[in-house]
Amino acid sequence: MKKAVHFGAGNIGRGFIGLLLHRAGYEVVFADVVASLIDDINASHAYRIIVLDEDVQTETVDNVRAVLLDSAACRQELVDAEIITTAVGLGNLANLAAIIAEGLKLRRDQNPSAVVNIMACENAIRATTTLKQEILSHSDAELTAWIENHVGFADVAVDRIAPNRAGYASEPLDAVVERYFEWDIEAPTLKGDVTIPGATFVQQLDPYLERKLFILNGAHATAAFAGYRKHYATILDAMQDSEIANIVTRVQHEAIIGLVNRYPEFNMETLGRYAESVRARFLNPHILDDVARVGRDPLRKLSAQDRLVRPLLLARQVSEETPGLVNAIALGLCYDNPGDEAAVQLQQKLRDFGVKETVTRITGISQETILDEIVAAFDKWQVFA
């Protein structure tokens, strides 16, 4: 049987990547740092997926086992795996790289002719490329040459919400997820034949990365920033406010204008349906997503190439009016959550430099017209302080 090693046995690892690999006929070996989780998986060799939609459904994933992440057994599992995937968080890839590099060295010595594909399934742009660079930094010239010939590194875009387990999970290994998922894989960088039912293989990933970042992540951040400003606890609460729902819809529409202008494979109708499906997901009554979690780290979310500023600038190439994205950026500036370190830093910048200078420093926006619009929107939202 084919084997896949997946780093990270959390809700997304078990409920999304592990599930699709299981459906594709792979034995899935999880690697994680939590010893009790490893023991539970090895005791049962199976777990349940609980899918939250209009109704609640379950599915069983079997033929699974687990190893402690930084162990000799973990490295040895990489020797005969066909696929290696991760869902550990972008910040943990650097630490993971040394372990994978050591496993690939064992593979070169023990199984030198077979190919393997690596995919970092993180909520970040081109995380696999980042992981590859980190792995190569731990490799000598000989190992690097072997890796280039025998290891595929495919960038991916992934999307599935794994909400709070409370009220739905009754067993320790239950993975709670929404029904919707998307796994886009950039096919040209794969080695050999890879088939994963449910995944979409594309020739160029950039359009799909930006579609998700702008239309989903940008809308999600907007709902969180606005929801926090209007004192709502969850995204569901925020999206039931007609003013916030209208701003989110407008943010998506403006992002679509920029994407259609940039990528010929996209059109307004197709992206409009995608945007509508995103809003429907935000209104799933089973998913109570905390606005503080979704709004976390506003400095990153307001940066030049991220989910709000980048689509704003693309849309301004086509239209002079982007009130949705202007409001979203202003709401991000208003995000003053004292429990969020980045939000605290942002508020200090506003006090030190003023709104206009802070916007330029964080976003890179220098056009006076846009800056004036953001400042005006920022002032408007102060009423909800």
From TrEMBL:
<dbReference type="GO" id="GO:0008926">
    <property type="term" value="F:mannitol-1-phosphate 5-dehydrogenase activity"/>
</dbReference>
<keyword id="KW-0560">Oxidoreductase</keyword>
<keyword id="KW-0520">NAD</keyword>
<feature type="domain" description="Mannitol dehydrogenase N-terminal">
    <location>
        <begin position="3"/>
        <end position="192"/>
    </location>
</feature>
<dbReference type="InterPro" id="IPR023028">
    <property type="entry name" value="Mannitol_1_phos_5_DH"/>
</dbReference>
<dbReference type="InterPro" id="IPR023027">
    <property type="entry name" value="Mannitol_DH_CS"/>
</dbReference>
<dbReference type="InterPro" id="IPR036291">
    <property type="entry name" value="NAD(P)-bd_dom_sf"/>
</dbReference>
<comment type="similarity">
    <text>Belongs to the mannitol dehydrogenase family.</text>
</comment>
<dbReference type="InterPro" id="IPR000669">
    <property type="entry name" value="Mannitol_DH"/>
</dbReference>
<dbReference type="InterPro" id="IPR013118">
    <property type="entry name" value="Mannitol_DH_C"/>
</dbReference>
<dbReference type="InterPro" id="IPR013131">
    <property type="entry name" value="Mannitol_DH_N"/>
</dbReference>
<protein>
    <recommendedName>
        <fullName>Mannitol-1-phosphate 5-dehydrogenase</fullName>
        <ecNumber>1.1.1.17</ecNumber>
    </recommendedName>
</protein>
<feature type="domain" description="Mannitol dehydrogenase C-terminal">
    <location>
        <begin position="205"/>
        <end position="347"/>
    </location>
</feature>
<dbReference type="Pfam" id="PF08125">
    <property type="entry name" value="Mannitol_dh_C"/>
</dbReference>
<dbReference type="InterPro" id="IPR008927">
    <property type="entry name" value="6-PGluconate_DH-like_C_sf"/>
</dbReference>
<dbReference type="InterPro" id="IPR013328">
    <property type="entry name" value="6PGD_dom2"/>
</dbReference>
<dbReference type="Pfam" id="PF01232">
    <property type="entry name" value="Mannitol_dh"/>
</dbReference>
<feature type="binding site">
    <location>
        <begin position="4"/>
        <end position="15"/>
    </location>
    <ligand>
        <name>NAD(+)</name>
    </ligand>
</feature>
